[in-house]
Design a protein that fits this description.
Largest sheet: none
Structural class: mainly alpha
Organism: Leeia aquatica
Number of strands: 0
CATH architecture: Up-down Bundle
Shape: globular
Protein name: Sodium-dependent bicarbonate transport family permease
CATH class: Mainly Alpha
Distance between the termini: 22 Å
Order of helices and strands: HHHHHHHHHHHHHH
Number of domains: 1
Number of helices: 14
Keywords: Membrane, Transmembrane, Transmembrane helix
């Protein structure tokens, strides 16, 4: 319960309430975009500074390998299950959405760890970057297979073009670039950037979560008419994926902080990068389905209940 009294979480709850009350409170899109880029840049710097201090270790390599494995395993397990509930196009899109990650969920989890003085590796920001693209690529391959099976005239997307789009995405490049800056500048860079990446971070996150609360509330109508089984999936899948990550972290001997963040990454669902790509790559899928479930149900669940559950479980078992 104490985690809900965190200012950033309370601003998220306030945003949901304001949205449900149909308030005209609104965060202009350019400001929302700026806040998103700021958080990614600050997170990348923090990760780079931490990597400069720790260096590359076996645990870091294990964490990154586990992240990539989960990014491949989750959509491959999700797709056949979702095919029982929705058409193939929607199943592929949902598998990509839940196989990828939410940067804001991850950033909120790092704040939870900082607040409770639990250590974690800065390299987990790199794990987040690595987990974003594999699910998208798998989903597009599945969709192209469906097109071939159905003999459709619509051509599949070029794998080369998709790889380029995934790895040159502005947000992902900013995260990686900021991490490299932090890695190269080390302690001196950390001291110089402290007002930017440290002092301002909590307030900026609170402002952004207010915007996310408004957006989540305003996307709830998209869930009207969706099968209760899919709504159950939007809550059950994160719990299953987090459990899978916990087992993997236990097997690899990861620390509680790193294992907990791996659970958060596995449990999160993308609502920005993946839906933007899927609109072009799999136009046959219904955006109201994959966007509505990830932002309307999974994101609020993870922010309000999932993060403390995953991190406290990791602390007990790892």
């Amino acid at each position: 319960m104490t985690s809900l009294l965190d200012p950033a979480i309370l601003f998220f709850v306030f945003g949901i309430c304001a949205g449900l009350l149909k308030s005209n409170l609104d965060i202009p899109l350019p400001i929302s975009r700026f806040l998103s880029l700021y958080l990614l840049m600050a997170l990348g710097l923090k990760g780079g500074f931490a990597l400069a201090k720790s260096g590359l270790t076996l645990e870091i390599a294990s964490s990154l390998g586990a992240a990539v494995l989960l990014a491949l395993l989750i959509p491959l397990l999700a797709y056949p299950l979702l095919r029982r509930l929705v058409p193939g196009w929607d199943a592929a899109a949902l598998a990509a959405t839940y196989g990828s990650v939410s940067a804001v969920t991850f950033i909120t989890a790092t704040q939870y760890l900082d607040q409770h003085q639990l250590s974690y590796g800065g390299h987990m920001a790199a794990a987040m970057a690595l987990m974003e693209s594999p699910a998208i690529l798998l989903a597009v391959l599945l969709a192209n297979r469906l097109r071939r099976e159905q003999g459709g005239a619509q051509a599949g997307h070029s794998l080369r073009a998709l790889l380029h789009e995934s790895f040159t995405d502005g947000a992902q490049m900013l995260l990686i670039g900021a991490m490299l800056v932090g890695l190269l500048t080390g302690a001196a860079g950390q001291a110089a950037m402290q007002p930017f990446s440290g002092d301002l971070f909590k307030g900026m996150l609170s402002f952004f979560l207010l915007d996310m609360g408004l957006l989540a509330a305003r996307n709830l109508p998209q869930l009207h008419g969706i099968s209760p089984w899919l709504m159950a999936y939007a809550i059950g899948a994160p719990l299953c994926h987090a459990t899978l990550a916990l087992l993997l972290a236990k097997l690899l001997g990861l620390s509680a902080g790193d294992g907990g963040l791996l659970m958060v990454l596995a449990a999160s669902a993308s609502y920005i990068a993946v839906p933007a790509v899927l609109r072009e790559a799999i136009p046959e899928a219904r955006p109201a389905l994959y966007f509505g479930l990830s932002l309307g149900l999974t994101f609020p669940f993870n922010i309000l209940l999932g993060i403390p559950l995953y991190l406290q479980t990791a602390q007990r078992l790892l």
